[in-house]
């Protein structure tokens, strides 16, 4: 079934920046009275009314039921975005699977699916993503935009006609014009982003870091990822920067990673490293989930492996907080169960590397659901739509 085009996207292109700020404020912080909005955004109530009227008329903003204004006590009808009326499409590509979600304007998931990637050719993947969009949309209106995230450098140094090309070692892609290919396949504007960067945007607008100007995010799973938000902006990172982080040496005498470093972050924290260490001790094949379960049940081998990894994670978080001076570090990714199973060990290592003050940094452990990665894709599409840039 083919999706129908959206009715009001055209108006968005001509909206002034002040109008975009209003939508952003409402999306992130929820419904507000016109007086409260005007005060937050430093606009006169006259300007606010002038800016919001066309958006209310077009159905992008809605007025709620009458309440008493918290600022001046008068009856008022708070403004909100019509979040449920607008759809965004988010996709995360891994080496072997595609995860896709449809969300509303506040990044709430309304439909989700994941499946293997049978053919890694870029055009074939784009066709697969299009089919997923059609299936998840169920014949409803087309999404306003799509965001696709993937590991590594989502923007190669090379350009073609102004488009940044995509390299992905996971997918075996070199200099792929992914944005053009996807826009042709999907028929809506597409944003391409590094997956960890997208996850940090998600937490910044809709998750644990909402309202924070500064925070860091460490992701653990197939690889070790990092994102840093300072003064409300994500610090740009190239693949080489992220590689430096993933292979930061935490203990010179530790286990060896696939690149031959002893005791680097990946050697302790990448899923493959943990599974390999547990397999050696147990003398049988084992999955990451099983290692976590066995550790939680008190198995000595798995407790040892998980304990060492948690100690490394505590050190890594301490270093992140110390060098960047952020007070909040989010731990996310599909391997995050490790931080829960061995939270005590993590806290001990954090404390030992923070002058005995583990509470000097707020460590937030997030859910380990692959849909969160795809949701990050929807979030960068939402942000691109609202701010007018990608
Ligand atoms: Zn390494």
Secondary structure elements and their pairing?
Blueprint: H1 9-12, H2 17-29, H3 34-41, H4 45-58, E1 61-63, E2 67-68, E3 75-76, E4 79-81, E5 88-93, E6 97-103, E7 109-116, H5 122-137, E8 145-150, E9 159-160, E10 163-164, E11 166-168, E12 173-176, H6 178-186, E13 190-194, H7 195-206, E14 215-220, E15 224-230, E16 233-234, H8 239-246, H9 265-269, H10 271-282, H11 288-296, H12 300-324, E17 328-332, H13 337-341, H14 343-352, E18 362-365, H15 370-387
Parallel strand pairs: 5-8, 8-13, 14-17, 17-18
Antiparallel strand pairs: 1-4, 2-3, 5-6, 6-7, 9-10, 11-12, 14-15, 15-16
This protein binds zinc ion (ZN).
Residues 247, 257, 259, 261, 264, 266-267 line the site of zinc ion (ZN).
Family: Belongs to the ROK (NagC/XylR) family.
Organism: Nonomuraea zeae
Protein name: ROK family transcriptional regulator
Question: Total number of helical segments?
Answer: 15
- Uncertain runs are 1-7
Q: Just give the CATH class of the largest domain.
A: Alpha Beta
Strand fraction equals 15-25%
Instruction: Write out the distinct hetero groups bound to the structure.
Output: zinc ion
Count of strand segments = 18
**Main β-sheet: number of strands, strand sense, barrel status?**
5 strands, mixed
Biggest sheet strand line-up: 7-6-5-8-13
Share of residues in helices? 40-55%
Count of discrete domains: 3
Distance from N terminus to C terminus (CA atoms, Å) equals 30 Å
């Amino acid at each position: 079934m083919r999706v129908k085009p959206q009715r009001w996207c055209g108006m968005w292109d001509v909206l002034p920046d002040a109008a975009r700020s209003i939508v952003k404020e409402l999306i992130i912080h929820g419904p507000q009275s016109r007086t409260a909005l005007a005060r937050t955004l430093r606009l006169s109530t006259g300007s606010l009314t002038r800016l919001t009227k066309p958006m209310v008329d077009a159905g992008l903003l809605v007025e709620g039921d009458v309440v008493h204004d918290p600022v001046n006590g008068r009856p008022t009808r708070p403004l909100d975005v019509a979040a449920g009326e607008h759809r965004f499409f988010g996709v995360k590509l891994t080496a072997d699977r595609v995860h896709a979600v449809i969300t509303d304007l506040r990044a709430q998931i309304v439909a989700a699916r994941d499946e293997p990637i049978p053919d890694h050719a870029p055009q074939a993947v784009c066709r697969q993503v299009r089919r997923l969009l059609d299936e998840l949309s169920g014949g409803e209106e087309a999404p306003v935009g799509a965001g696709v995230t993937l590991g590594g450098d989502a923007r190669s140094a090379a350009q073609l006609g102004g488009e940044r090309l995509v390299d992905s070692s996971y997918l075996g892609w070199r200099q792929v014009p992914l944005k053009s290919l996807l826009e042709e396949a999907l028929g809506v504007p597409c944003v391409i982003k590094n997956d960890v960067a997208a996850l940090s945007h998600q937490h910044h607008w809709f998750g644990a870091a909402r309202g924070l100007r500064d925070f860091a995010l460490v992701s653990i799973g197939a690889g070790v990822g990092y994102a840093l938000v300072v003064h409300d902006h994500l610090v740009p990172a190239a693949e080489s920067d992220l590689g430096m982080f993933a292979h930061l040496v935490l203990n010179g005498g530790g286990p060896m990673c696939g690149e031959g470093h002893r005791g680097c972050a990946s050697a302790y924290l990448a899923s493959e490293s943990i599974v390999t260490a547990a397999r050696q001790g147990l003398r049988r094949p084992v999955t990451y989930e099983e290692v976590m379960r066995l550790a939680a049940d008190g198995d000595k081998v798995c407790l040892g492996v998980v304990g060492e990894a948690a100690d490394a994670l505590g050190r890594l978080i301490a270093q992140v907080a110390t060098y960047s001076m952020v007070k909040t570090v989010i731990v996310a990714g599909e391997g995050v169960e490790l931080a829960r199973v061995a939270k005590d060990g993590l806290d001990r290592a954090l404390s030992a590397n923070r002058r005995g003050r583990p509470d000097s940094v707020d460590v937030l452990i997030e859910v380990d659901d692959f849909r969160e990665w795809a949701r990050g894709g929807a979030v960068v599409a939402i942000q691109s739509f609202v701010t007018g840039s990608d």
